[in-house]
Design brief:
Shape: globular
Number of strands: 13
Distance between the termini: 60 Å
Number of domains: 2
Order of helices and strands: HEEEEEHEEHEHHEEEEE
Helix content: 10-25%
Number of helices: 5
CATH topology of the largest domain: paralog of FGE (formylglycine-generating enzyme)
Largest sheet: 5 strands, antiparallel
CATH architecture of the largest domain: Alpha-Beta Complex
Length: about 325
């Protein structure tokens, strides 16, 4: 009788073990499957013909801001604080004139005819100037400028409707994390401003040769080949595969401006406030070494339009 029970119980136990193991394996496969729904970091994709090329930025943590020892540091770049960022997608380049023109064509959106431009050696608000004509030559492959924060968000909302995906401006934390691409130096190519011209369109010897007032600017000691904006993507990418994260145009972010990182969020989300000023990042074609740094922060009114401010978009994943 005992032998008969053993013959019945042992196979039943083995069957239970086997079923449990299969269940564990099934659970493991589900977790892996869930994890792989996000595209691989570095993947470049576009959600429609003519849509901006997006790069998948991996999740990670970084120290946001700049150390006291960084040359030309501003007080609003601290205190440094650790931030975690979820995976998201960011435009490989800034939004181009051609891409923005398609938005205006489809929506009949009005961007006005006033923009602060550099002409006759002065930055002034001028009527008759706009994203179509910011006071210097450009074509459809150049980054669109004379764009306000409100204009940039209107474009993001249009693209979201068009694609069914969630496009938006990057948060300030996402922007800095993406620009640094795991570097801790002042710029993603290192600390030297004079190596900028392989990586960015900045105030340099090319600007000095063509813009009269540039003789009085603090310049990078190199030549990038462009006095004003450059066509997007002309310069070397950072380690995440993103181009023009520094230089070319300042870029709007979603965040309100705060003059300190005290009480800043640590999860990479947008930090809102009174909304009177919005954060811009990255520096531009007319900026000195002090402004073309990963930690440098600018700000402006959400309805302001300057010939050195544009934008790139983020996209939530998956």
């Amino acid at each position: 009788m005992r032998n008969l029970l053993n013959l019945i119980i042992i196979p039943f136990c083995l069957m239970c073990i086997s079923t449990g193991a299969q269940g564990a394996e099934h659970g493991k496969a589900s977790r892996i499957s869930g994890a792989t729904r996000l595209p691989k970091a570095g993947t470049v994709f576009s959600d429609c013909p003519g849509c901006p090329a997006m790069v998948v930025v991996p999740a990670g943590r970084f120290e946001m801001g700049s150390p006291d020892s960084e040359e030309a540091r501003s007080d609003d770049e601290g205190p440094m604080h650790r931030v975690r960022v979820s995976a998201f997608a960011l435009g490989r380049t800034e939004i181009t004139l051609g891409q923005f023109a398609k938005f205006v064509q489809d929506t009949k959106y009005s961007v006005g005819d006033n923009c602060r431009t550099l002409e006759d050696g002065k930055f002034e608000m001028r009527s008759g100037r706009s994203w179509r004509d910011p006071g210097f030559p450009q074509n459809s492959q150049y980054p669109v400028s004379c764009i306000s924060w409100n204009d940039a968000r209107a474009y993001a909302q249009w693209l979201s409707r068009k694609t069914g995906k969630q496009y938006r401006l990057p948060t300030e934390a996402e922007w800095e994390y993406a620009a640094r691409a795991r570097t801790v130096t002042a710029r993603y190519w290192g600390n030297s401003p004079d190596k900028a011209c392989r990586y960015a369109n900045v105030a340099d010897m090319a600007a000095k040769a063509k813009i009269t007032s540039a003789s009085f600017w603090l310049l990078h000691n190199c030549r990038d080949g462009f006095a004003y904006t450059a066509p997007v993507g002309r310069f070397k990418a950072n380690a995440f595969g993103l181009k023009d994260m520094l230089g070319n145009l300042w870029e709007w972010t979603e965040d309100s401006y705060h003059d300190s990182y005290d009480s800043a969020p640590d999860a990479g989300n947008a930090w809102q406030g009174d909304g009177k000023k919005r954060v811009i990042r990255g520096g531009s074609w007319n900026n000195s070494p002090e402004r073309v740094r990963a930690a440098k922060r600018g700000r402006d009114n959400p309805n302001s339009r300057f010939c050195n401010i544009g934008f790139r978009l983020a996209r939530s994943l998956p």
